[in-house]
Amino acid sequence: MPSKVTFILGGAASGKSAFAEEICVKSGKDRVYLATSQVFDREMRAKVDRHLQQRGEGWTTHEAPMDVAPVLDSLGGDQICLLDCATMWLSNHMLAEDGDLVSAQRDLLDALARCAADVVVVSNETGQGIVPENALARRFREAQGRLNIELAKVADTVVQVTVGLPHVLKGAL
User: Fold this and answer.
1) Which residues are CB-neighbours of 108 under 8 A, at least 6 positions away?
2) What CA–CA distance (Å, rounded) separates 39 from 50?
């Protein structure tokens, strides 16, 4: 049975989304997919298509690249929501240069706290690689680290996925 907020963290192509989907399917609840990605090119279209195929039937999908609160606020206790992913959500905010990441992050965390449904949040671990060579990438890495820390604080369960293997960091599965 999932926790109210389950935070799944891992590197790129680590298996974190597949693991998060499995948690949602096993919950037996009505599944909601909250997509934060935006498709701007063929590479992203192919990635989204792979995720759709992997996920299969039985999901209600909402696309919310930046403002996820209305979707989270609309969910009920008989649902489980997969927010995939916090990394794209943060990227969208940074690239939009909307300026107030602190308020946007607070709004996200508040929406998670208010949400009646169980929520599984997927995010990338970006701090274990080399220091990026450009300023935007360094700002993103730092902002992602801060966001991940805050998500881990509010989550009941935190799992890091490495090579498809889950490692519980907080709580229990």
Assistant:
1) 68, 69, 86, 89
2) 13
- C-alpha to C-alpha distance for 40 and 4, rounded to whole angstroms: 33
Q: Is 93 a known active-site residue?
A: no
Q: How far is CA 39 from the centre of its chain?
A: 17
Question: Of 51, 62, 93, 167, which is the active-site residue?
Answer: 51
pLDDT of residue 1: 44
Mean pLDDT, rounded, for 100-106: 92
pLDDT band at 129 (very low <50, low <70, confident <90, very high): confident
Cα angle 119-123-125, degrees, rounded to a multiple of 5: 145
Pick the CATH number of 5-170 from 3.40.50.300, 3.30.830.10, 3.40.50.2300, 3.40.50.2020: 3.40.50.300
Q: Could you tell me if 158 and 122 are in contact, meaning their C-beta atoms sit under 8 angstroms apart? A: no
